[in-house]
Specification:
Blueprint: E1 8-14, E2 26-28, H1 32-46, E3 49-54, E4 57-62
Length: 63
């Protein structure tokens, strides 16, 4: 039997460290362009989807 992780936060990507939730891997970015690039790469690498929670704060989740 195979198990699949579903509905799980895989990573947080942010330009605003004060907004980061605890308990996840965090990628800090200096610019919005860097934020978008890191989110796109992590979506592909982790087979997840990026969701913007607030300005400068994204989570990568597995659905």
């Amino acid at each position: 039997m195979s198990t699949t992780i579903q509905k799980f936060i895989l990573a947080t990507v942010t330009t605003a460290p004060e907004k980061v939730p605890s308990g996840t891997s965090v990628f800090y970015c200096k610019t919005d362009d860097e934020l978008q690039k890191i989110c796109a790469n992590l979506e592909a690498i982790l087979d997840g989807i990026a969701h913007e929670l607030d300005e400068g704060l994204f989570i990568i989740v597995k659905h």
